[in-house]
Design brief:
Blueprint (H helix, E strand, L loop, with lengths): L18 H23 L1 H8 L3 H23 L5 H24 L6 H30 L2
Helix pairs in contact: 1-3, 1-5, 2-3, 4-5
């Protein structure tokens, strides 16, 4: 009777260097979609509380939904193109700046709550941009 020993590959599976980036992009996508839906569905009550005119809230919500779809698309690539991640980081950074400008620029008649709402949004997209940058660095430097 002959016994054969099965050999097993003990090498670790390849590490997904984009794991953090993909997770952050997906969370960013979902939270952006939720905010878009809220801005559209609750435009009236939200406008009363924040001072955002309904057309502004609806337009901002549509922009958010488009952004959410783009983020989901980038996260779904088998190999995430660094150039697209740089674009995501840039859009998040610009959105943060735009939110601060809207909070203090007087272009939209925001209430005190509306100003805080915009500043919290600026903080959130700044955090996403930083996490996406960290994920991009991990993806491009580990190998």
């Amino acid at each position: 009777m002959t016994h054969t020993l099965a050999t097993t590959d003990t090498a670790a599976p390849p590490r997904d260097t984009a794991r953090l980036l993909r997770l952050v992009l997906r969370v960013d996508s979902v939270s952006t979609a939720v905010m878009g839906v809220v801005l559209i569905a609750a435009a009236g009550p939200l406008g009363s509380a924040t001072g955002m005119p309904v057309p502004f809230s609806v337009g901002f919500g549509i922009y958010q939904l488009g952004g959410a779809a783009a983020l989901a698309l980038v996260a779904g690539y088998p190999v995430i193109p660094p150039g697209l991640v740089w674009a995501v980081i840039a859009v998040n950074a610009l959105s943060a700046v735009a939110s601060v400008v809207l909070a203090f620029g007087g272009m939209v008649p925001l209430t005190g709550f509306g100003t805080v709402f915009m500043l919290i949004g600026a903080l959130i997209v700044t955090v996403y941009a930083a996490l996406e940058y960290a994920g991009l660095r991990r993806m491009t430097t580990v190998g």
